[in-house]
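Hi all, long-time lurker, first post. I run a small reading group and we've been trying to get comfortable going from sequence to structure in the token notation. Rather than ask abstract questions, I figured I'd post a concrete chain and ask someone more experienced to write out its structure so we can walk through it together at our next meeting. Sequence below, copied exactly:
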Amino acid sequence: MDFSKLFSLEGRVALVTGGSRGIGEMIAEGFIAAGCERVYVTARKASVVEETAARLGERCIALPGDISTMAGIEALAADLAARESRLDILVNNAGAAWGAEFDQFPESGWDKVMDLNVKTPFFLTQKLHGLLQAAAADRPAKVINIASIDGLRPNAWETYSYQASKSALIHLTRRMAARLIKDNIVASCICPGAFPSEMNKAAALNPEASAKGIPSKRVGTIEDMAGGAIYLASRAGDYVVGTPLPIDGGIVNGWVPEDAVDPSGH
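-- Answer (accepted) --
Happy to help. Here is the structure in token form:
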């Protein structure tokens, strides 16, 4: 075993949805640094996608598209198939959030979030199954779904559809993984905590305040997110099937409130 190649993505082709900014851009940049031959980034706003691709260099390719609808999913899959004969890595990162008080939460806020966060990852993976299978003839292809720590535990905000969608995506990943491994396609899941992004404006605008609730005492960085994604996408992650990986500075598994009372009295 050549351990120097354990985390290499040399020669691989990747697609990152929602790849024009935030966590998606962090993952795309990491994949390029790890040796990907081509990394396609997609998002709805063409100008933003093209700016990101230009910033990340010639191995990053803009592939604009609206994957919030089945027509958009099919169009993106067809566009990629016209360019590539295989897809080694698919990162389902595109997502949406919605917050409103319980008695005012709208149906539109429910449907938009559930569709993009749960329906889109499933059907985009389905439509790209052939390209993933083609890559898996040589080595495992990878599907990495981007969920959230809010799918692992409730948070304090009234983001009902977001929290439900991320929990659903974690369980969907497990079920997809059980099926796709038969085709030598490894599906797994990342559950980010606080990272600066358009969706998490608090971490972006006031990281010091956000860090107060994180055991590691800081918000996540590009190295944290890219490192986790590269691990799962590379040979190092070939045996990690269906597993949700929290990248959160310890919020889910390490957080004990300082004023917590031990029920034993100690």
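A couple of things your group might point at:
The chain has one domain: 3-249.
Residues 3-249 form a domain with the Rossmann fold fold (CATH 3.40.50.720).
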